[in-house]
Amino acid sequence: MFEIRNRKTGAVLVRVDAARLAAANLAGASLEQADLAGADLSGANLTGVQMKQADLRGAQLQGAWLTRADLEGAILEQANFTDVNLIDANLSWVKASGSTWRYSLLAGANVYSADLSKADMSMADLRANLQYAVMTKADLRGSNLSGANLQEADLRGAEFQGANLSGANLLGAKLEGARLFGALGFRGVAAGPAPVRAARRRPWWQVW
Fold it and tell me: pLDDT tier at 1 (50, 70, 90 boundaries)?
């Protein structure tokens, strides 16, 4: 039996009839303010889970399903979200510096004002609302940001090689020190760096 407790009160939120949480079915569970720091949730079904302000620092979520999950204000620092399905999830105001999101699907997700500084989001589908998101020194190489809302986002020092920025809204975005050479569809924005041409040939790892 595995118990998930409230990180502030210690109250039991959910009991899982298993010794571990990996591959567990927690779809639709109410886990607000849950203490899941360091938990192994790889392959778990977390579809529609309510996880506002949950503590997931250092948690392992590789291959998990979080479609339509609500993680508003959750603590996700150093968490591993590799190859995770987060379509239409709410990630607004999350604290996720140093986290990993490689190959994850965030299409339609709300990532408003999230702290994703130094996060590895390479090869991820980021066609999301990233308005006011902080992605300083983030790794966005090969990611799909086509049509993404990046208004007022802090992208200083971020890596964009091979990223798809076609149709992305970069109005007011901070791009000082960002490496945009080879970013597809980037044509420059007001107060941003000089426009650069899209790469003629895609690198071998480009999939978008």
Answer: confident
Torsion angles phi and psi, residue 70, rounded to 5: -110, 105
**pLDDT at residue 190 in the model:** 39
> 39 and 56 in contact (C-beta within 8 Å)?
yes
Tell me how far apart the alpha carbons of residues 96 and 28 are, in angstroms, rounded to a whole number: 23
Taking the model in full, what pTM does it have?
Answer: 0.88
Residues whose CB falls within 8 Å of the CB of residue 106, separated by 6 or more in sequence, listed in order: 86, 87, 89, 91, 124, 125, 126, 127, 128
- DSSP letters, 35-82, are B-TT-B-TT-B-TT-B-TT-B-TT-B-TT-B-TT-B-TT-B-TT-B-T
Under 8 Å between Cβ of 59 and 77: no
Amino acid code (one letter) for 193: P
Q: Give the largest CA-CA distance in the chain.
A: 58
